[in-house]
Design goal:
The protein is built from five helices and six strands. The protein has 171 residues and is of the alpha/beta class. Strand 2, helix 3 and strand 3 form a beta-alpha-beta unit. The protein is globular. The N and C termini lie far apart (61 Å).
Length: 171
């Protein structure tokens, strides 16, 4: 009887963890210049390629970005590899509206969705918090290598922060 209960508990745990949304949240790669809507620099292009390599076995079914080209260009190699369209989310209404729109889109997806979100230094931590990861730290302007992995189950978010690509240097 104990074995049966243990098997049932393990089955339930496995089914529950399989039903968590998985969200990868990164900032765009390094900018080519300080213009309002810059392309990626060589370092930014290398970071976008590194992101695609890291997510090669992940298979995101949804990719959300801002409408600015640096976020779309960062997501492009991953989108191309997985044959997924990049969906820019409007900045109309300001940063808070953008963050809320992304969180709403993610929460509307199936429980087993895998999502890549490419944002900005001022939106990435806010998006993580809007998705329930209260521990999301602020992001300095010089930080490009942070990847936040979130597992969303109902109203619960578990997160893990790692680094990818070339180390960012904040001087």
């Amino acid at each position: 009887m104990k074995r049966l209960l243990l098997a049932a508990a393990l089955s339930l745990l496995t089914a529950t963890s399989a039903m968590a949304q998985t969200v990868y949240l990164v900032r765009h790669g390094e900018k080519a210049d300080a213009s309002a809507d810059p392309a990626l620099s060589e370092a930014g292009q290398a970071r976008a390629a590194a992101l695609a390599a890291i997510l090669a076995d992940v298979h995101p079914g949804h990719i959300f970005t801002s409408p600015l080209q640096r976020t779309r260009l960062t997501a492009a190699p991953t989108a191309e590899f997985h044959s997924v369209s990049v969906e820019p989310i409007s900045l109309d209404g300001g940063g808070a509206a953008h963050v809320a729109a992304i969180a709403e889109r993610v929460h509307a997806l199936p429980d087993d969705a895998v999502v890549l979100i490419v944002g900005h230094s001022n939106t990435v931590p806010l998006i993580a918090r809007a998705l329930g990861y209260a521990e999301a730290a602020g992001m300095p302007e010089c930080e490009y290598d942070r990847m936040t992995l979130l597992h969303l189950t109902g109203d619960t978010a578990h997160g893990q922060v790692s680094r990818y690509g070339a180390p960012a240097t904040c001087e």
